[in-house]
Amino acid sequence: MFEAKQVVDMLNPAPGAHILDLATHHGDTAIALAEAGCVVTAVDSSAKAIEKCNEILREKNISTITAQIMNAEQLSFNGTKFDGVTCRMAMHHFDNVPLTLRQIAGVLKENAPMVIGETLSPDDRSLGDFMMLIGRLRDSTFKTIFTLDDWRQLLLDNGLKMIDYSLSKDVRNATKWLAHSPLSDEQKQRIHDAFNDSSQEIKDYYRAVIEDGKITEFTDDKILIKAICV
Predict the structure, then answer these.
(1) Would you call 163 exposed, middle or buried from its count of C-beta atoms within 10 A (0-12, 13-18, 19+)?
(2) Has residue 24 been placed in a domain?
(3) Residue 181 covered by a domain
(4) Quick one: 198 exposed, middle or buried, by C-beta within 10 A (0-12, 13-18, 19+)?
(5) Which three-class secondary structure state does DSSP give residue 221?
């Protein structure tokens, strides 16, 4: 998975820029932005995540980040416009991505950039559907992933325009990935079964390594998208 610094590098904010970090979780991207000289508003719909984020900010003595509870689909900043927006590995959990994009467009200054980091669906929908299945088996809040063309159209339809993107492959150690999840053994077995029962095309595309009936490694697609408010 790409690091927070990669998001910041693609955003390329000017020192002192006021950046909004959506679904900040524990603030990794927000902290990377602050280290780049930005003033950051970090939001997350989870009170627990914001509590932990604020604890980390206190420990690190970071004063240029304000963390608060807010849903990305209901942004409310009383007319404040941001110099940039970031959202790293969270939109596949959102109920309504088009609405979120419209919310983002509404809080960005004209021609200001946004960077999204996400899992990418292959153009072959059957391959994308398989990765959505795996995502949902591991995390019930996993909603959907999009192709590159999907993202282009979603952005255009909601006040934003893609100006750059970067593709990468994420090699996952599935053993650790599952060990770090809250799943029961039965739930983990469903993921092993899904890989075992998948077609050879799926196994090949995701470079699945299966040992003794257990998925131990696979590769999925990631994308960093830079768009501007138009």
Answers:
(1) middle
(2) yes
(3) no
(4) buried
(5) strand
Question: For residue 132, how many C-alpha atoms fall within 13 Å in the half-sphere facing its CB?
Answer: 15
- The CB density around residue 12, as the number of other CB atoms within 10 Å, is 12
Q: Do the domain assignments include residue 38?
A: yes
What is the total residue count of the chain?
A: 230
Give the chain's domain count: 1
Report d(CA 68, CA 24) in Å as an integer. 10
Considering only CA atoms, which of 124, 81, 121, 130 is closest in space to residue 229? 81
Residue for token digits 């998001």? 7
Cβ within 8 Å of residue 87, ≥6 positions away: 21, 22, 23, 72, 104, 114, 115, 116, 117
Q: pLDDT, tens digit, for every residue of 112-150?
A: 999 999 999 999 999 999 999 999 999 999 999 999 999
List, in order, residues 6 or more apart from 73 with CB less than 8 Å away: 94, 95, 96, 99, 100, 103
Mean pLDDT of 26-49: 97
What would the two tokens of residue 67 be? 């963390």
Best CA proximity match to 220, nearest among 176, 187, 172: 172
CATH number of the domain at 43, please: 3.40.50.150
171, 219 Cβ separation under 8 angstroms: yes
Count how many Cα atoms sit within 13 Å of the Cα of residue 3 in the half-sphere of its side chain: 6
- For the record, the structure tokens of 204 come out as 């090949």
Q: Is residue 71 part of a domain?
A: yes
For residue 37, give its domain range: 4-122+141-170+221-229
